[in-house]
Protein backbone atom coordinates (compact mmCIF):
# COMPACT_ATOMS: atom_id res chain seq x y z
CA UNK A 1 0.00 0.00 0.00
CA UNK A 2 1.20 3.48 -0.81
CA UNK A 3 2.09 6.08 1.79
CA UNK A 4 -0.85 7.93 3.39
CA UNK A 5 -0.60 11.63 2.47
CA UNK A 6 -3.87 12.81 3.96
CA UNK A 7 -5.60 11.34 6.97
CA UNK A 8 -9.01 12.75 7.86
CA UNK A 9 -10.36 11.25 11.09
CA UNK A 10 -13.87 11.75 12.43
CA UNK A 11 -13.90 15.31 11.16
CA UNK A 12 -16.73 17.68 11.87
CA UNK A 13 -17.19 21.14 10.48
CA UNK A 14 -19.93 23.46 11.65
CA UNK A 15 -20.79 26.82 10.15
CA UNK A 16 -22.72 29.37 12.16
CA UNK A 17 -25.05 31.56 10.17
CA UNK A 18 -26.81 33.89 12.56
CA UNK A 19 -28.52 31.60 15.07
CA UNK A 20 -28.42 28.63 12.74
CA UNK A 21 -25.68 26.00 12.83
CA UNK A 22 -24.98 24.10 9.62
CA UNK A 23 -23.28 20.74 10.18
CA UNK A 24 -21.37 20.59 6.90
CA UNK A 25 -19.19 17.58 7.84
CA UNK A 26 -20.47 15.07 10.37
CA UNK A 27 -17.76 12.62 11.36
CA UNK A 28 -15.98 12.14 8.07
CA UNK A 29 -13.13 9.67 7.61
CA UNK A 30 -10.86 9.58 4.56
CA UNK A 31 -7.33 8.47 3.76
CA UNK A 32 -5.66 9.73 0.60
CA UNK A 33 -2.68 7.70 -0.56
CA UNK A 34 0.24 8.71 -2.71
CA UNK A 35 -0.66 8.35 -6.38
CA UNK A 36 -4.42 8.54 -5.86
CA UNK A 37 -6.38 10.22 -8.64
CA UNK A 38 -9.36 10.64 -6.44
CA UNK A 39 -12.77 12.02 -7.36
CA UNK A 40 -15.03 13.25 -4.57
CA UNK A 41 -18.63 13.20 -5.71
CA UNK A 42 -21.98 13.78 -4.04
CA UNK A 43 -24.96 16.09 -4.31
CA UNK A 44 -24.62 19.82 -3.96
CA UNK A 45 -24.27 20.70 -0.28
CA UNK A 46 -22.83 17.30 0.69
CA UNK A 47 -19.57 18.86 1.91
CA UNK A 48 -17.11 18.48 -1.00
CA UNK A 49 -15.81 22.06 -0.97
CA UNK A 50 -15.68 22.13 2.82
CA UNK A 51 -13.58 18.96 2.84
CA UNK A 52 -11.14 20.25 0.20
CA UNK A 53 -10.74 23.52 2.11
CA UNK A 54 -9.87 21.62 5.30
CA UNK A 55 -7.34 19.37 3.55
CA UNK A 56 -5.88 22.43 1.83
CA UNK A 57 -5.35 24.15 5.18
CA UNK A 58 -7.62 26.99 4.11
CA UNK A 59 -10.03 26.39 6.97
CA UNK A 60 -9.93 24.52 10.28
CA UNK A 61 -12.12 21.63 11.45
CA UNK A 62 -14.58 22.00 14.32
CA UNK A 63 -13.69 18.50 15.55
CA UNK A 64 -11.58 15.50 14.63
CA UNK A 65 -8.13 15.48 13.03
CA UNK A 66 -6.92 16.47 9.57
CA UNK A 67 -3.34 15.35 8.95
CA UNK A 68 -1.47 16.24 5.79
CA UNK A 69 1.95 14.69 5.12
CA UNK A 70 1.85 13.36 8.68
CA UNK A 71 1.23 16.75 10.30
CA UNK A 72 -1.91 17.45 12.30
CA UNK A 73 -2.99 20.76 10.77
CA UNK A 74 -4.56 21.97 14.02
CA UNK A 75 -1.11 22.01 15.64
CA UNK A 76 0.37 24.26 12.96
CA UNK A 77 0.47 28.03 13.27
CA UNK A 78 -1.15 30.12 10.57
CA UNK A 79 2.32 30.79 9.21
CA UNK A 80 3.26 27.11 9.08
CA UNK A 81 -0.02 26.32 7.32
CA UNK A 82 0.73 29.02 4.74
CA UNK A 83 4.20 27.54 4.27
CA UNK A 84 2.74 24.07 3.76
CA UNK A 85 0.32 25.42 1.15
CA UNK A 86 3.06 27.26 -0.67
CA UNK A 87 5.61 24.45 -0.77
CA UNK A 88 3.58 21.27 -1.11
CA UNK A 89 0.00 21.94 -2.16
CA UNK A 90 -1.69 23.15 -5.32
CA UNK A 91 -5.24 24.39 -5.04
CA UNK A 92 -7.70 25.02 -7.88
CA UNK A 93 -10.56 27.15 -6.61
CA UNK A 94 -14.00 26.85 -8.07
CA UNK A 95 -13.95 30.65 -8.59
CA UNK A 96 -10.41 30.50 -10.13
CA UNK A 97 -9.06 33.37 -7.95
CA UNK A 98 -6.69 34.61 -10.65
CA UNK A 99 -4.93 37.93 -10.10
CA UNK A 100 -6.84 40.32 -12.42
CA UNK A 101 -3.98 42.68 -13.24
CA UNK A 102 -1.60 39.90 -14.26
CA UNK A 103 -1.58 38.06 -17.58
CA UNK A 104 -2.13 34.30 -17.73
CA UNK A 105 1.62 33.78 -17.93
CA UNK A 106 2.28 36.16 -15.04
CA UNK A 107 -0.37 34.45 -12.90
CA UNK A 108 1.49 31.16 -13.26
CA UNK A 109 4.95 32.73 -12.97
CA UNK A 110 3.99 34.67 -9.88
CA UNK A 111 3.30 31.51 -7.89
CA UNK A 112 6.55 29.93 -9.08
CA UNK A 113 8.36 33.04 -7.94
CA UNK A 114 6.75 32.88 -4.49
CA UNK A 115 7.95 29.30 -4.33
CA UNK A 116 11.50 30.42 -4.97
CA UNK A 117 11.90 29.41 -8.62
CA UNK A 118 14.74 31.19 -10.39
CA UNK A 119 15.19 32.32 -13.96
CA UNK A 120 13.71 29.10 -15.35
CA UNK A 121 10.26 30.07 -14.10
CA UNK A 122 9.11 31.78 -17.30
CA UNK A 123 9.92 28.67 -19.30
CA UNK A 124 8.23 26.41 -16.74
CA UNK A 125 5.12 28.59 -16.75
CA UNK A 126 5.00 28.66 -20.54
CA UNK A 127 5.41 24.91 -20.83
CA UNK A 128 2.46 24.15 -18.56
CA UNK A 129 0.31 26.74 -20.39
CA UNK A 130 1.24 25.09 -23.67
CA UNK A 131 0.23 21.71 -22.34
CA UNK A 132 -3.23 23.11 -21.68
CA UNK A 133 -3.39 24.74 -25.13
CA UNK A 134 -3.14 28.19 -23.56
CA UNK A 135 0.18 29.19 -25.10
CA UNK A 136 -1.37 31.70 -27.50
CA UNK A 137 -3.40 33.25 -24.71
CA UNK A 138 -0.49 33.65 -22.30
CA UNK A 139 -0.42 37.45 -22.69
CA UNK A 140 -4.09 37.96 -21.85
CA UNK A 141 -5.48 39.10 -18.55
CA UNK A 142 -8.26 37.10 -16.85
CA UNK A 143 -11.00 39.47 -18.07
CA UNK A 144 -9.87 38.78 -21.65
CA UNK A 145 -10.36 35.03 -21.20
CA UNK A 146 -13.51 32.90 -21.18
CA UNK A 147 -14.56 31.14 -17.98
CA UNK A 148 -13.18 27.85 -19.28
CA UNK A 149 -9.86 29.46 -20.22
CA UNK A 150 -9.57 31.06 -16.79
CA UNK A 151 -10.26 27.70 -15.24
CA UNK A 152 -7.41 26.14 -17.22
CA UNK A 153 -5.06 28.96 -16.18
CA UNK A 154 -6.05 28.29 -12.57
CA UNK A 155 -5.15 24.62 -13.05
CA UNK A 156 -1.85 25.55 -14.74
CA UNK A 157 -1.00 27.75 -11.78
CA UNK A 158 -1.80 24.99 -9.27
CA UNK A 159 0.33 22.33 -10.97
CA UNK A 160 3.22 24.41 -12.34
CA UNK A 161 5.53 23.83 -9.37
CA UNK A 162 4.68 20.09 -9.33
CA UNK A 163 3.41 20.09 -5.73
CA UNK A 164 3.06 16.69 -4.04
CA UNK A 165 -0.69 17.13 -3.66
CA UNK A 166 -3.16 19.00 -5.86
CA UNK A 167 -6.68 19.77 -4.65
CA UNK A 168 -9.18 20.94 -7.24
CA UNK A 169 -12.76 22.03 -6.67
CA UNK A 170 -14.81 21.05 -9.74
CA UNK A 171 -11.92 21.74 -12.14
CA UNK A 172 -13.88 20.83 -15.27
CA UNK A 173 -17.13 22.58 -14.36
CA UNK A 174 -16.83 25.18 -17.14
CA UNK A 175 -15.06 23.12 -19.79
CA UNK A 176 -16.40 21.42 -22.88
CA UNK A 177 -15.62 17.72 -23.07
CA UNK A 178 -12.57 18.21 -25.32
CA UNK A 179 -10.91 20.65 -22.91
CA UNK A 180 -11.99 18.59 -19.92
CA UNK A 181 -10.30 15.52 -21.40
CA UNK A 182 -7.12 17.49 -22.18
CA UNK A 183 -7.05 18.67 -18.58
CA UNK A 184 -7.61 15.19 -17.16
CA UNK A 185 -4.93 13.69 -19.37
CA UNK A 186 -2.47 16.37 -18.31
CA UNK A 187 -3.23 15.84 -14.64
CA UNK A 188 -2.94 12.09 -14.95
CA UNK A 189 0.35 12.48 -16.83
CA UNK A 190 1.67 14.60 -13.96
CA UNK A 191 0.58 11.97 -11.50
CA UNK A 192 2.44 9.29 -13.43
CA UNK A 193 5.60 11.26 -14.23
CA UNK A 194 6.08 13.31 -11.09
CA UNK A 195 4.57 11.11 -8.37
CA UNK A 196 1.87 13.68 -7.74
CA UNK A 197 -1.47 13.00 -6.08
CA UNK A 198 -4.79 14.56 -7.08
CA UNK A 199 -8.02 15.02 -5.18
CA UNK A 200 -10.85 16.75 -6.99
CA UNK A 201 -14.54 17.26 -6.48
CA UNK A 202 -16.80 16.80 -9.45
CA UNK A 203 -20.27 16.22 -10.81
CA UNK A 204 -18.88 15.21 -14.17
CA UNK A 205 -19.15 11.54 -15.24
CA UNK A 206 -16.16 12.09 -17.55
CA UNK A 207 -13.97 13.07 -14.59
CA UNK A 208 -15.22 10.10 -12.62
CA UNK A 209 -14.27 7.82 -15.52
CA UNK A 210 -10.65 9.05 -15.27
CA UNK A 211 -10.44 8.65 -11.50
CA UNK A 212 -8.55 5.79 -9.87
CA UNK A 213 -10.89 6.02 -6.92
CA UNK A 214 -14.33 7.56 -6.36
CA UNK A 215 -15.46 8.64 -2.89
CA UNK A 216 -19.12 9.59 -2.51
CA UNK A 217 -20.28 12.03 0.18
CA UNK A 218 -23.76 12.51 1.49
CA UNK A 219 -24.73 14.83 4.32
CA UNK A 220 -21.11 15.36 5.35
CA UNK A 221 -20.07 11.72 5.52
CA UNK A 222 -18.48 9.18 3.18
CA UNK A 223 -21.12 6.74 1.99
CA UNK A 224 -18.98 4.82 -0.51
CA UNK A 225 -15.33 4.50 -1.49
CA UNK A 226 -14.67 2.67 -4.72
CA UNK A 227 -11.21 1.77 -5.96
CA UNK A 228 -11.14 1.49 -9.73
CA UNK A 229 -8.69 0.19 -12.25
CA UNK A 230 -6.75 3.36 -13.07
CA UNK A 231 -6.59 2.36 -16.73
CA UNK A 232 -10.34 1.84 -16.92
CA UNK A 233 -10.82 4.81 -19.18
CA UNK A 234 -8.36 3.72 -21.87
CA UNK A 235 -9.80 0.26 -21.63
CA UNK A 236 -13.32 1.48 -22.25
CA UNK A 237 -12.20 3.62 -25.16
CA UNK A 238 -10.22 0.80 -26.71
CA UNK A 239 -13.32 -1.34 -26.77
P1 LIG B 1 -20.62 20.99 -1.84
O1 LIG B 1 -19.28 21.55 -2.21
O2 LIG B 1 -20.66 19.49 -1.79
O3 LIG B 1 -21.73 21.54 -2.66
P2 LIG B 1 -20.24 22.57 0.58
O4 LIG B 1 -19.04 22.01 1.24
O5 LIG B 1 -20.06 23.83 -0.19
O6 LIG B 1 -20.92 21.43 -0.33
O7 LIG B 1 -21.36 22.85 1.66
C1 LIG B 1 -21.74 21.91 2.65
C2 LIG B 1 -22.79 22.57 3.54
O8 LIG B 1 -22.18 23.60 4.31
C3 LIG B 1 -23.93 23.24 2.78
O9 LIG B 1 -25.10 23.08 3.54
C4 LIG B 1 -23.50 24.68 2.72
O10 LIG B 1 -24.61 25.53 2.62
C5 LIG B 1 -22.77 24.85 4.03
N1 LIG B 1 -21.70 25.85 3.96
C6 LIG B 1 -20.55 25.76 3.25
N2 LIG B 1 -19.76 26.83 3.46
C7 LIG B 1 -20.44 27.64 4.31
C8 LIG B 1 -20.15 28.91 4.90
N3 LIG B 1 -19.00 29.54 4.66
N4 LIG B 1 -21.08 29.43 5.73
C9 LIG B 1 -22.22 28.77 5.99
N5 LIG B 1 -22.55 27.58 5.48
C10 LIG B 1 -21.68 27.01 4.64
MG1 LIG C 1 -18.73 22.80 -3.79
Describe the structure in your own words:
The protein has 239 residues and is α/β, with parallel strands linked by helices. It has one domain (4-238): P-loop containing nucleotide triphosphate hydrolases (Rossmann fold, 3-Layer(aba) Sandwich), CATH 3.40.50.300. The chain contains eight helices and ten strands. The chain has helices at residues 48-55, 78-88, 104-114, 121-131, 147-159, 177-194, 205-210, 232-238; strands at 4-17, 20-33, 37-41, 63-68, 71-72, 89-92, 165-169, 197-201, 213-218, 221-227. The strands form two sheets. Strands 6-7-8-3-9-10 form a six-stranded mixed sheet, sandwiched between helices. A four-stranded antiparallel sheet has the order 2-1-4-5. Helix 3 (104-114) crosses helix 4 (121-131), helix 3 runs parallel beside helix 5 and helix 5 (147-159) runs parallel beside helix 6 (177-194). The longest helix has 18 residues, at 177-194. Residues 48-49, 169, 201 line the site of magnesium ion (MG).
Amino acid sequence: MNEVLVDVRDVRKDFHVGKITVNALRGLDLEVRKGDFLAIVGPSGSGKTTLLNLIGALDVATGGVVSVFGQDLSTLSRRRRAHLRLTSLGFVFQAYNLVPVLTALENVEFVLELQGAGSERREAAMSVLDELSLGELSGRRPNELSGGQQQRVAVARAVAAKPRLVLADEPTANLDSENAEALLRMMRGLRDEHDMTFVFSTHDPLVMSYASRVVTLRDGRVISDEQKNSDAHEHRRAN
